[in-house]
Every structure is written in C-alpha cells, then in structure tokens.
Protein: 2-aminoethylphosphonate--pyruvate transaminase
Organism: Blautia caecimuris
Amino acid sequence: MKNYKLLTPGPLTTTDTVKGEMMFDHCTWDDDYKQITQEIRKELLKLAHVSEEEYTAVLMQGSGTFGVESVLTSVIGKEDKLLIAANGAYGERMADIAEHAGMDYVIYNEHYDQVPKAEVIREMLEKDPSITHVAMVHSETTSGILNDIEAVGKVVKSMGKVFIVDAMSSFAGVDIPVKDWGIDFIISSANKCIQGVPGFSFIIADRKLLTESKGKARSLSLDLYDQWKTMEVDGKWRFTSPTHVVLAFAQALKELKEEGGIPARSRRYKENNQLLIKGMKELGIHPYIDGEHQGPIITTFFYPENYDFKFADMYTYIKDRGYAIYPGKVTEAETFRIGNIGEIYKEDIERVVNLVKEFLDSTGK
Ligand SMILES: *Cc1c(COP(=O)(O)O)cnc(C)c1O
C-alpha cells in the first residue's frame, strides 16, 4: 500500500521512533511497566502546569470520547445538572452522552463559526442555580475554532461551579494553564497533539472533586474514580491496558520534550497553520473561521468559487501524491478541512498547497 501523511487531527502522522516502540510486547503487571504509567501521569501534570498535590492524571482505555464519557458519567451525580456550551459536533456529542446517561442537562448552542460567550453562560448560571457543572470544548475540531475557555472558566469559578473541558485536539498543541484557567477536569487523548497512536484518553482532574465523585459513576468500565484508585496505588491499570500504545506514548512525550516542549510545538503548529491559510488564500480558497478565532490545529475551507469543484476528486489527487485531507463537517456550508498537527512541517504545507494548486489548474472553471 502507498504511504501517505495525515493532514487530519488525529490519528495523525507520528515518528518512526514512536511507532517503533510498539515492536515490544510488554508485560502489564511488571514493575517496569507500571513505572512507565506513573511517569506518564507525572509528565501530563507538568504539561498542564498543575501540582501533584492538587491535581492527578488518570489514563483511560478507549478513544477520546471514552474519556469525555468517563468524566461526565462519573462526576455528575443524580442530583446534579450540567450546562453544555456547544458550537460543533464535539460539543453536541457531550449532550449525546448526557442524553444516553439520562442526565439532567441544558445546552447552549452557538453558531459553528462563533465562540460560546462567557456572558451568556453567566446569565444561564444566574437564572438556573440548580446547574452544578459546565462543560465545553476548547478546540472545536468540527470547524477549527479555538474557544475562549479562559473567559468561561473565570465565570464558572466565580459562580462556584465545576468546569469540564474537552481539550482533545488542543492539549499540548496549545498551552493550557489548567488551574489558572479554572479547569477542574480536562480531557485529551494519546493520538492528538502529544503525537502518540490511538488507544487511550487521559484526564487531568482536581483531586478533591475526583475524590468526592466516589460512587457516582453510571458505568463500570468508565468509572473514573475506580480507575484512578487502582492506578494511584502503583500505576496498574484496572483492566487490560493498551500496552503498545502506552509505550509509544511514553516515547512521544520524550520527543515532545526534545522538540522544546509545548512552546516549541505550539509555535510549529501555528506556523504550519498560518502558512497553510496564506497559501490557500492565494489560490482563492478562504477559511470558514475568522482570523481572530481560528485555532492552530485544523482549518475549515470553503469550496473554491469559479471552479467545477469536486472534493472527492481533489482528495484522491492529493492522496495519490502523499497526503490525506478531511471532508468538511460544518452543516451550513460546503467545506473541507486540512489539519496541520503531527509530524508535519513547513515543507509538507508548501507541498500540499502546491498540490491543491495543481489540482485546480487541472480542473475546469
Ligand atoms: C478527537 C476529538 C474527540 C474524540 O474523538 P474520538 O474519535 O473518540 O477519539 C473529542 N473531542 C474533540 C474536540 C476531538 O477533536
């Protein structure tokens, strides 16, 4: 099969050294292995700028959604009520999770090209004091918009509520001072900006709130408190852990450090993103999100005007030449998406913009 690089927001293109770690079948109950888990947990807290006294990290089997579902169904009790601020498919997925769990919740829907407003959230919290938790997405991968979790966190904390953030596609690609921004639970996964392979999600949680969630979980395998209690002893996972993925993730964390940590990685992503948008604009292809709110992870582009444009044809053209891009996900416009995270550099962005140009040149107007 022909190889290609992924310009999708996870799974993404990883290094050969990260993939190479998976050539070893590691034993799970062995001390070495448990130690690797413990080191990963410690490192995640550092990346989140939080202390081990106040916060703790829990790894959870499954994709990112499993992590989000684990938090929502484990920490929101029967007497609690959740407010979800949504401006894309991943915010809406949280409502879906709440619905499935029979949770008491309200949703604040914002247009996909707008960020949820902290002031609207304040009004909703003031009007309904029974709301106990607020959840939202940081980087809405649906559109590529970067939501202002800092402003919302301020409001949520000033009202004394619990703040849950899905930072799946931003954590480690965008610097997030978790405590300073008032975040109590933040969720991300192995195959996004840390550049590991898919297989588990992780949660950075306020210790006190996590402790208080004991016995609230509505699911056995996604019980965050139980998972934590087992892992906290000596790094043992409660059920079979994705060993190969964990080894790859430990290597990915090492490589993040070697690159220069979050500052260097976020700079590379931002530069990739700006170069991509600039190049596409020169071809007459414009981003769906305005410059102020566009995040550095993935960009939604409108179909180019003045061309007999078929996304499937462009997708194949580009894939045959070494890159996989993404269809659009916003509902109200014809769009496609290009991600710029993973082992992706300036040369890749230049090449893909050039491929888009070649494709358009070969297409009828
Ligand atoms: C990737 C992603 C998820 C998780 O998706 P999975 O397919 O379950 O890994 C959740 N939220 C956001 C914002 C994401 O980008």
Summary: The domain at 5-9+261-363 is CATH 3.90.1150.10 (Aspartate Aminotransferase, domain 1). The two ends are 33 Å apart (CA to CA).
